[in-house]
Amino acid sequence: MLFKKRILIIDSSDSARTILFKELVATLNDVDVIACATAQEALTATRRFEFQIITTGLTLPDMDGHDMIRQIRAQQKNRDTPIFVVSGDTQTQILDSDAEETLPNSITAYFDKAEGHKALVEFIFNFLARDTSLSARILNVDPSATSAAITNSILEKNNLNFLHVKDGMEAIHELQRDIEAHDKCTYDVLLTDLNLTPEMDGFKLIQTVRNTLKLDYLTLPVLLMTIEPEGDEKTDFTGIFGAGTNDFITRPVTEDALMERVINLINIKRQHEALQG
Questions:
Q1: I need a labelling partner for 5 at 20 to 30 A (CA). Which of 27, 135, 147, 269 fits?
Q2: Does the structural domain 133-276 have CATH classification 3.30.70.141?
Q3: How far apart are CA 245 and CA 199, in angstroms?
């Protein structure tokens, strides 16, 4: 069972916030909705919970909306959460090049307040309807039968479709086959161990995916699995993220930790697909 979905509403207007809250609860009865009137309330909520969608205005009583969004993006839990800005001046916001330079990739989309609450609820409903439990596909690369069995059992328990392969070349061939068959990559997440084979370790696999197959961070998010450093060893963050990894997790993994990261990466892909139409 996937984690319960949550939506965060941030709106300084009591009436607007209440109307949107009630309509979302009535339409999405399997989703938790949290409503906040201020940026500080919202930041407290985002530090505590992971959200599937955040909606906010930019005029808040205690903080500029852009500053609040920057702080949300700096948090681990919601750095990739889709954020929809509800504004009465969407055209100006979209054309404001200065805002784009200071806030790159932080706002997922602008929603015109004039379209009304029902249109916003429908937009959110359609976004959430891209059900990860039904359509997500994971490519799991792991040479160890033992660790692969643990990972695969977690994915299976959470109703995620997956294919397990044992080495990097097999993964590359599968991705090439998938692209040729569908004219795009239909896998949502590449999950790979760091230690594969001498010819192609996890870093080289990810670099091949990024540079040869031309699958970027949004088209195929990558989660790298490593072992916990021992003694004076330190995690090679430069190597991990320099190779093109979206995120990493250390073994032994727990179900909650693995699924939190996998779902975050699925959301990255879903967000990208939604914006691409």
A1: 147
A2: no
A3: 19
